[in-house]
């Protein structure tokens, strides 16, 4: 790796660890401004090259994609949990998995899921009382879990939803950074690692019970992901372990990222009453709400929330061939970071990049690089559940604001934690008004 690649100020031995641990979101924004488009980051045991310009993300995903592969460390960290699911699989295994999972996310099928999502959201909102304080993150997580259970597993309810939520919390806790982000191997018996292993076992047990129920009952015409994968397993075209891996990946990735995005969308609306009033007017105009109801402003609000607070805030790749980027030689085997967080807040692309302005998506501004907005990743491995997530977000936001208004409390704050996702650091309390 060329020594001329700029590196933010660092300390002996620990490199940039203190600055990253103090506030990794601010660090990547500041470093992108001061050292971009390419700079190096080092923490104990790891060195990365950060591509801080969105045009370089297009290089990785499109124009020079053969020079880049998935970061193998991702498999090291998540392989025990996700096996050969879509996030961690490689090569032909990933391609086959994508083909097997893809039918569950065809546009027509995704639209059909909308009715179930609406029912789940309506039940949740019906339980709120005037003046009640609700935790937007807890409620969003319940809705997202229930939606995955209903649409992907074909179940009316997921009895183990709370247990699954607890397991996800334990898993995510292992990846939350300390003040000095030194990675502790999984074999070290720390409390976090022990909770992680118990959580993986818990999730395996939940999925095993769900599959047993599904196999012993009506599959509902093979319309959901679980039934589709089980049929492939029964036909001998898919191993049982692969069924488990795909389902766990969809359960975890699908509900966690959507729950985080929904939390921040609702919180932003509570913190911006004028924007909330406009959305309430839009969603209350139709006599009934359906999956195909036009909601242009609501869609812009969701888009803007995903820009400001993308649940997936960094992507990792590794060079499989040497590349020359912005005049720097990037050797084979270099770990590369693509910081969505910085792309989404780049003042060269967005006016007032830290402001919540849904109508910016109506404005003519500077020409925007394609990958300046990438909350669902990019390239051939972009999130397979993008349509599902966007539909769920718009329908839940609309359902909530048709029924209630949201008020920020003195404790309402958006404070992401850089774990597996940019999940909230704690509860996000909102006051309900009917």
Would you mind describing this structure in some detail?
The chain is an alpha+beta fold and 434 residues long. The chain contains 15 helices and twelve strands. It has helices at 17-22, 24-35, 54-63, 72-82, 91-101, 107-126, 136-152, 161-173, 191-216, 225-234, 240-271, 273-284, 296-308, 340-344, 386-403, and strands at residues 38-43, 46-51, 68-70, 133-135, 315-319, 323-325, 328-330, 335-338, 405-408, 416-418, 422-424, 429-433. The chain has a five-stranded mixed sheet, with helices on both faces. Helix 6 crosses helix 7 (136-152), helix 6 (107-126) packs parallel to helix 15 (386-403) and helix 8 (161-173) runs antiparallel to helix 9 (191-216). The mean pLDDT is 88.
Concise summary:
With 434 residues, this protein is an alpha+beta fold. The protein is built from 15 helices and 12 strands.
Helix content: 40-55%
Shape: globular
Largest sheet: 5 strands, mixed
Q: Find the structural class using helix and strand composition.
A: alpha+beta
Number of helices: 15
Mean pLDDT across the residues is: 88
Total E-strand runs: 12
H and E string:
HHEEHEHHHEHHHHHHHEEEEHHEEEE
Write the layout of secondary structure elements.
Layout: H1 17-22, H2 24-35, E1 38-43, E2 46-51, H3 54-63, E3 68-70, H4 72-82, H5 91-101, H6 107-126, E4 133-135, H7 136-152, H8 161-173, H9 191-216, H10 225-234, H11 240-271, H12 273-284, H13 296-308, E5 315-319, E6 323-325, E7 328-330, E8 335-338, H14 340-344, H15 386-403, E9 405-408, E10 416-418, E11 422-424, E12 429-433
Parallel strand pairs: 2-8
Antiparallel strand pairs: 1-2, 3-5, 4-12, 5-8, 6-7, 9-12, 10-11
